[in-house]
Amino acid sequence: NDLSFDERLGLMVDRELTEREDARMTTRLKAARLRHNACLEDIDYRSPRGLDKALILQLGSGQWLRDGLNLIIGGPTGVGKTWLACALAHKACRDGYSVRYLRLPRLMEELGLAHGDGRFAKLMAGYAKTDL
């Protein structure tokens, strides 16, 4: 074995840290309940969807999350709004943010039910703890 004790120990520590971060990311992705397994790196900018590559790259940097800003994605049916939202959410999970994906009808249903059975404050507190 050509590695010294310190080198072997360093490799073991690096592996442990990597495995723990992978487990945390897997947990964040599972909790996010994303509709699509989408990644920003998979976007095809050649398709005629009118995506602004510079804007997508800027959003992918996550600065808007660090600044506490909101994002609304709009457009006609079938242009990939949900896919893009999931790709941004996936990137946020990889960057260490907690995410919860909900479509508006489901959110309204959850809020209405929680308001009716007295869980509204608890539900809102849970959403407030989520980064995105």
From TrEMBL:
Pfam families attached here?
IstB_IS21 (PF01695)
* Molecular function terms from GO: ATP binding
User: What InterPro entries does the record tag this protein with?
Assistant: IstB_ATP-bd, P-loop_NTPase
Q: Which residues form the IstB-like ATP-binding domain?
A: 2-132
A GO BP entry? DNA replication
Per its UniProt record, what PANTHER family does this chain match?
ATP-BINDING PROTEIN RV3427C IN INSERTION SEQUENCE-RELATED, CHROMOSOMAL REPLICATION INITIATOR PROTEIN DNAA
Q: What is this protein called?
A: ISPsy14, transposition helper protein
Organism of derivation: Pseudomonas syringae pv. actinidiae
